[in-house]
Amino acid sequence: MSNTPMAASPLTRAVLEIDEYVSGLGWDQPARLFALVDTARLRAQEPALAAQLGLEAGSESAGLTPIEQDELPSGKPLDEFLGTIAWPDAVAGCALSVERMMLPPSAEAQVPQNLSEAKLAKWVAEHPERQEVRMTVAVLRDGGRESALRLREKDSPTEVLTGPDLVPGLAQALAATFEA
Length: 180
What we know:
This protein is an alpha+beta fold.
């Protein structure tokens, strides 16, 4: 968490920690899913795992620890996959980091009508104003939300935009994984 502001909320710190971790892996990565667990609870209930993750007893206790989950299945739409997830009670929240292409609002009027999903994706990928973006979105059981956005062309820790409502659709999909 070297670039994470200590004054930030535990959820913001977790999102920035995940963003920094995924950034270190480079671009063109698959989507990555993380469970968020209460750090103090993890130390108390799973001391061996806490030690393996480098969470020493004297370090910060109020916070969330991201734990990367197994690789997401390829070929299955993300929304369908998220609909299959159920988290155990020990998981306080979850986060997803995913790369996408996006267009600026000025390009929305240019989008051809009635394109299939595949043709629309191809059109966006070929658009001269497209931006590659990595979105890291986290939600908590209690409703807390946070996001971090990083543009490929401004790939720097100081250029990461954060906020709770940057990717509302993805946040809602993640929140649904906690509904019974």
